[in-house]
Amino acid sequence: MNTFRNTKKIESLSGTWTLHNGVKMPYLGLGVYKANEGEEVINAVSWALETGYRHIDTATAYENEEGVGKAIKQSKIAREDLFLTSKIWNSDQGYDSTIEAFEKSLERLDTNYLDLYLIHWPVKGKYKDTWRALEKLYKDGKIKAIGVSNFLQHHLEDLMKDCEINPMVDQLEFHPWLVQSDLQDFCKLNSIQYEAWSPLMQGKAFDNDTLKELGEKYDKSPAQIVIRWDLQNGVITIPKSTSKDHIKSNSEVFDFELSDLDMKKINALDREERIGPDPDNFDF
Question: What GO molecular functions are on record for this protein (predicted)?
C-alpha cells in the first residue's frame, strides 16, 4: 500500500499547487457534473465563488458550460483570478474536430482561453490526434495547461511515446474504494498532477463506518474527511455539489490534519472498486 504523503502546503481554499509547466492550479475546486444548465449550475458556481473557490471544472458532455460562463461573468471576479477547466468529448475527438469543439466551448463559456483542457476519455485510435490538437492550442496560448482524464498507466505511456508535451494533469476516479497507488506513483514520477473525480463515491462516503468514525474523532463530516485525505495524498479534488451548504462545508477542510495512522485507515478501505466506467472498457 502506498503511504505517500503530500509534502506540499495545504493552507487555504485559495491555495494552489504548481504544474510541471509552472501554472498554479487550485487544489480544491467545484465540479459541476450533472448540474443542470441554467439556474442550478449558475447558482452552484455563484455560491462556490462567493465562498472563495477559484477553480471550476466542467466539460462539454455536462451540457452546462454556458451557465458556468454566466455565473463567472456575474461574479465580477477577474478572469485571471479563476482556474477554469473543460474537457473534449469523445465524439469530438480527432485533430480538426478537437480544435473546432474547443472554440465552441470558449464561446459557451464566454472566455477567450481555458486554464486547463482535458481529453475526457482515452478513445482508442483518436486520443493521439486529439492530443496534437491540444498541444497546438497550448502553443497558441489558448490553454494555460493541458491534460487527460481517465487515462491509466498504459494510456499515458502510449501517449507519451509520441507527444511533444507531457500531460500536466490526469483526472481520474479516485476515492477510498479506488486508490490505484501504482498509478499515483507513476504520475508523480512523471510530474503529472493527479486529480480526483467522484471523490465522495457518489454519496457512498456518508455511509461508510470508518469515515463516520473519523468524522466523529475530528468533528468533521465524512465528506470533509475524504476531501482532506485527497489533499494529504497530493491529489487535487473537485467535489460536485449543487447545495449551498455542501459547497461551503466541502471547503472547510483547512483547520485540521489527518494523522498518518488515520490516513492509512482510509487507504485500507481500497477495494479496487469503480463507481464509474472502466477506462479500458467503455463504449461511449
Answer: oxidoreductase activity, acting on the CH-OH group of donors, NAD or NADP as acceptor
